[in-house]
Amino acid sequence: MAVVTVLRGVSHGRLPLLPHSQLPIVRPRNIAYRNRPNVLRVFVRYSQAQDLFTSRFQDRLENLPKLVEDIVQTSLSTGPRGALRLAQGVQAVVGVGSEWLQDVSKTANSSTGLPTQLQLGLLSPLYLRKLFERMGATYIKLGQFIASAPTLFPPEYVQEFQYCFDSAPAVPYEQIQTILREELGRPIDTVFEYIDPTPVASASIAQVHGARIRGTGEDVVIKVLKPGIEDILVADLNFIYIAARILEFLSPDLSRASLVAIVKDIRESMLEEVDFNKEATNVESFRSYLAAMGLTRQATAPKVYRQYSTKRVLTMERLYGVPLTDLDSIKSLVSSPETSLITALNVWFGSLLACESFHADVHAGNLWQLRDGRIGFLDFGIVGRISPKTWAAMEVFLQSIAIEDYESMASALIDMGATGKDVDSKAFARDLEKIFLSIQDLDTEIIVAAARDTSTNATTVAANVAFDERQMNALFLDVVRVSESYGLKFPREFALLMKQLLYFDRYTRLLAPNMNMYRDQRINVVSNQRQKNIYQ
Known about the structure:
With about 525 residues, this protein is an alpha+beta fold. It has helices spanning about 1-10, 30-80, 80-105, 115-120, 125-135, 135-145, 155-160, 175-185, 230-250, 260-275, 275-290, 325-335, 335-355, 390-405, 405-415, 425-440, 470-485, 490-510, 530-535, and strands at about 190-195, 200, 205-215, 220-225, 300, 315, 320-325, 360, 365-370, 375, 385, 445-450, 460-465.
């Protein structure tokens, strides 16, 4: 047998021609001995992986009843409207998908290939925003949430979803009348002497009409929830919540990203915004703060008429004035626009801790110079609540901006942000300095127009400020992006605070260009304890 084996080896060129006694001796036990450590390591890793799988499987089994309970309860609360929204969702996906296919076909023969937007399909910022707009109110509000939360979402999406803030088409007045009759529980003309059928404003979830109360003749505005919005919101938010719960159940790693927590935050924020009883409470809380601080001669918020308000209808005092960006009109109302700005700043800063919530949307449409000289705060649908820890860090942050101490600024942001690693504060400070120096170089376009009155030969000059809100958000995104590169994650209230500060920065450039709002002694950013003592 041995000779046959050798001859076969020679014939195939596999072994040298050696006598049988000189052939290599294979010792299986030696091979096993040499490989034993590797075998042990593989076995240990397999055992560890098996233990991890078993542990995760047991965790999932333990969490399964809760998941099923959540799905059942959420589905029951959604009811048959869920099926309708599913059909509408399919229609929206088909519509935007068709747009995407058309755009792909236009660039199919391009030598540069498909742009990134097209490669991502419906998940790209552009097409996802278009899909949200087709899906209606809930997803438009969700888009606004994304646009306002740069600490939670990628910058490309934050920028694209700024378009969700554009005004929405108005609902026919006949539908508004139907809602008013249902909510008031009596004929409309027994409450209101007159309602303007043309809305003052129309947003994704509500529209506002001017009116006059019968008997007293008081001018008011009526904010009315658009028809069907509640059903749509409940169905959509429940679907998003269930999807998040299932994703987190299937992939536990997502729980570290707080997916369900983020969805809950969105859900609570949006449902709170469509409950006008809560908005009424926010307004009344702010008015109480103004009264307690003796600020009613300097600023105001609309009086709420509770007897004519419900969850879907909010009747408020009508305030007359101009946005805080209309310099010419402001000058016709007050002698010092700078003083008005300082008043607005002091009132807002004071509310951060002395009020149950602070106004978290002070864009020009919600902050007015009133005809009676006061500052008017409007629309309390979006408010923020700040924790003592965040405010303590925010105070240091603001003080560091005032004196341009970027190391203190970095330390404050590190204290505010959650991080699991050491942060190089000096390098962080250098990066922050670059960002804030670029803010000073921003171009704010001040539009000046001159007109001559032919009868008096006098020249009047009108000035207004125009700035791109996307540019403003880009600044904040730079701060967030640099902070995240150091492992920092900020609470959402920080994003709300920063955005309001950027609004005020723009107002300062127009109304008080020589004033530094962080250094000026007339602006009071008081400490936590002092503010509480004043309010008590």
